[in-house]
Write a structure and sequence with these properties.
Helices cover 42% and strands 6% of the residues. The protein is mainly alpha-helical and 426 residues long. The chain has a domain of 223 residues: Cytochrome p450 (Orthogonal Bundle), CATH 1.10.630.10. The longest helix is centred in the N-terminal third of the chain and has 38 residues. GO terms for molecular function: heme binding; iron ion binding; monooxygenase activity; oxidoreductase activity, acting on paired donors, with incorporation or reduction of molecular oxygen.
Length: 426
């Protein structure tokens, strides 16, 4: 039987088309490589400062293969690369046409960016996730540019929502939620149940915000033990999921000498809660866009670069912190006995708490009050053990893709105050 071969003219036409496509692709790649090479040579021949050091990259596609195929999350890979290069600033290349990424681990460079060159690094990258969550960039935090909408919303926030007068006026709402936190933990205590500290702390923050904004703790029916209901669980899960996929506290020990505090745990006590604030600072320790070519620390940061002030790297920089991986709140106390300077804001950017500059957090006072009250009330009212017999082990391993604990901290509380001092209702 004779094989049925295609006509020779069809084979010839197909071969010619494939050859043309190959030649076009080859010409395109050669043109891109030559363009990049010429740009680098011109930059080297000019008087422009050098670019930040960068790891070896591929032509056209930059460091994309390493980012995609590396087993670690990108932020851990970046820090491993910078550690191997022995640098506190570097440039990560993405495919041609995309932005360059400039991670920063040095507080001095971070201060130069957000103080001296604040206007150049005030923009934020536009993304699908931030656009959806902000309903078309109608908020201040995720707005790509400092435009009129951003200024209007920031003015509303600072004058109507987080102003000093409003903060004082909403004091009773925050106190109600700190009392409810104690009621919830005490209810679990009485029933012999453990407390998931991640759930307790996240829902305390969610309760405070709902009480301040809507005047209510629950969206649905209230729960008998003061804990979150189904709708509140979904609300907080949605909030943290959104934060996780945007630009992407637990109690670790018991302090016996806190017994002398006022059992009501008032915000007026914050001035004397220096060690608690030091603990929070230590927990804080453990994505701007360049709008024009900018020189920082002697390096040229090209226009459109995404500068990342690394929360992970700044707080663990061994040039700044002695024994950086050790949890040591005493490092934030000056040793003189005068601890009035212990605040949660870190304007020198040795770690990231509320940031600084025009994009700094406008609710630093509110965040400080909520965080300090959360930790103080949990330590003041209860003793904590990993298991009921006190012999459990706390797993402090971090999650693979984030800085949360891989396993939520679950502990058993025990009352440490007289029974009549605990809230009876929520």
């Amino acid at each position: 039987m004779t094989p049925n071969y295609p006509p020779s003219d069809q084979v010839s036409a197909a071969g010619t088309a494939a050859t043309k496509a190959f030649l076009i692709l080859l010409s395109l790649l050669v043109s891109i490589v030559l363009t990049i090479t010429l740009k680098r040579k011109r930059a080297a021949a000019s008087n422009l400062p050098p670019l930040p050091p960068s790891p070896p990259s591929w032509p056209v596609i930059g460091n994309l293969p390493e980012i995609i195929f590396h087993t670690k999350p990108m932020f851990r890979w970046v820090h491993d690369v910078m550690k191997d290069m022995n640098t506190d600033i570097c440039l990560i290349r993405l495919p041609a046409g995309g932005p360059t990424i400039v991670p920063v681990l040095d507080p001095a460079i971070a201060r130069e960016m957000l103080r001296k060159h604040d206007a150049s690094f005030a923009d934020r990258p536009a993304s699908f996730g931030s656009h959806v969550i902000s309903d078309g960039y109608l908020t201040t935090v995720m707005s790509p540019t400092c435009d009129d909408q951003w200024r209007k919303m920031r003015k509303v926030l600072t004058s109507e929502i987080v102003s000093p007068a409003r903060h004082k006026w909403l004091h009773t709402k925050r106190v109600e939620e700190s009392d409810n936190l104690v009621f919830y933990v005490h209810s679990r205590c009485i029933s012999g149940k453990s407390v998931d500290l991640r759930i307790a702390t996240q829902h305390y923050c969610g309760n405070v915000m709902r009480k301040m904004l809507f005047g209510r703790r629950f969206f649905g029916e209230p729960t008998s033990d003061g804990g979150p209901g189904p709708m509140e669980v979904k609300h907080v899960e949605a909030l943290f999921t959104g934060l996780k996929y945007l630009y992407f506290s637990g109690v670790s020990d018991y302090l016996p000498w806190l017994r002398g505090w006022d059992v009501d745990g008032k915000e007026s006590d914050f001035g004397s809660l220096h060690y608690v604030k030091a603990c929070v600072r230590e927990a804080f320790r453990l994505h701007p866009v360049s709008t024009c070519d900018t020189v920082v620390a002697g390096y040229l940061i090209p226009k459109g670069s995404h500068a990342l002030l690394s929360r992970y790297g700044l707080g663990r920089n061994p040039e700044v912190w002695t024994d950086p991986l050790k949890f040591d709140p005493d490092r934030h106390l000056d040793g003189t006995g005068d601890h009035n300077s212990v605040v949660l804001a870190e304007h020198d950017l040795r770690f990231i708490s509320f940031s600084t500059g025009r994009r700094g957090c406008v609710a630093a006072v509110l965040g400080t009050c909520m965080t300090t009250m959360l930790l103080a009330r949990l330590l003041q009212c209860f003793t904590w053990a990993p298991l009921e017999d006190g012999k459990g082990v706390i797993d402090l391993a971090e999650a693979k893709d984030e800085l949360f604990l891989a396993t939520p901290l679950v502990a058993f509380p025990k009352p440490r105050l007289a029974p009549h001092l605990y809230p009876k209702t929520n």
